[in-house]
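Q: Joint fold for the lines below.
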Amino acid sequence: MEKHEGFMRALKCRECGREYPLTANHVCEFDFGPLEVVYDYERIQRSLTRTAIQSRPKSMWRFRELLPVANEPTVGLQVGHTPLVKAERLAKRLGIRELWIKNDTVNYPSLSFKDRVVSVALSRAKELGFTTVACASTGNLANSVAANAASAGLKAYVFIPSDLEQGKILNSLIYGATVIGIKGHYDEVNRLCAEIAGKFGWAFVNVNMRPYYAEGSKSMGYEIMEQLGWQIPKHTVVCMASGSLLTKIQKSYQEFIKLGLVAETDYKIHGAQATGCSPISTAQKAGLDFFKPVKPNTIAKSLAIGTPADGFYALKVMKESGGAAEDVTDDEIRESIRLLAECEGIFAETAGGVTVGVAKKLIASGKISPDDSAVLCITGNGLKTMDAVNGHVGVPREIKPSLREFEALVGTEDKVVA
Amino acid sequence: MAKKVRIPTPLRKLTNNEEVVEVKAETIGDAIVELQSRYPGIKERLVDDNGEVRRFVNVYVNEDDIRFLQNQQTPLKEGDEISIIPAIAGG
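A: Joint structure:
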């Protein structure tokens, strides 16, 4: 177990602390608690310095010591290092001093933050000898598994709810993955996949590979801190489906503090959900530390998880950091997608609308002070969920190719030359 | 009055690797007690010290999560299929 395991030491149950070998295993057999990778931080500290990081290629793998692969990564070497955009126009509209967009709508290769988790999961799956990879997905993960498996020469099976957006379905099929549409919610897809994973011996990235997979999300937090000039943002707003990303952003901040890469400063992590699937934000607002599962009904399909596996931990992170949670309606999601696009030229998917809409509410209610600085984690590209805004953004105005018709249409209001 | 219980991989060490076992119980709560009598140790894996189903354990009767039914009081009928599934990460 000690050989060839890189900077990892073991898998450990988050509930009872029992340790397990570093195999494809995600559940503690004593209490079903999730397993998490344990690292050798002393060795990491000797190797991972600011200078070392800055000397490496601009991808998520510049933080390689903190990502759970034993050897050098083999899948997704170009993933990450997405832009952190200073959003001055949006800041003005939302009424806050300083605002940043961590823009994973342009993550490589499949245009969502899921490429981060998949490059870790598939690199690790190859190390463990798997040749077939699979996932249960609300869309983005399926796209990423399909794309990254294609380039790695792995066979892929992706399982999705059959009513997903066309864009998300096509974006899995094109890479040659076997796409299975399940007539049901994501939670039902998940349930089936848990049963399949036990039987078929595949690397299910978010089932038996989950301890490795989930760690990939931390790279979004590392990048934010580096791009802000080695500091932790005062506020971070993160959308929540299972709640995993939110917990991993916090873990990334804590790890950088522990390794001395950033100073320990006060930070708050806020969670965003769609009102039509808001088990975590509902619990947070009621001051509860547990959530009640729901049956999702929202256009934010990538966040439509009614039984969020990390909901409990997400609530804990928000409580400990002094963060808040909010949720927004489908109309608010569409308005917010448009607001981000019109202010910053960034077309986010529905989940991005959720994050922007919730940030707007948290600033308006004072839970994020207008004098502070905030980072919004925008996780996926709007070209994949066009169904959600189609019919809500106007239509092109059509004319014949005639100057007279054009002048009649726009008048002289935008004319700048006499 | 047989009902089938699908045993997840982490619990199969307790059921001699049986994937599916049959129970006669009339409710989920009774099914857990019945399983415990045949496979000692299985109950503490599924419920916590307060007798509640553990927060990372999902129990389904046919297609439905028992938290949308009547939790451990959920009645069982002939031919029902019970699944015990660990919670899974997002996607």
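Q: Anything notable?
A: The mean pLDDT of chain B is 90. Chain B is about 20% helix and 25% strand.
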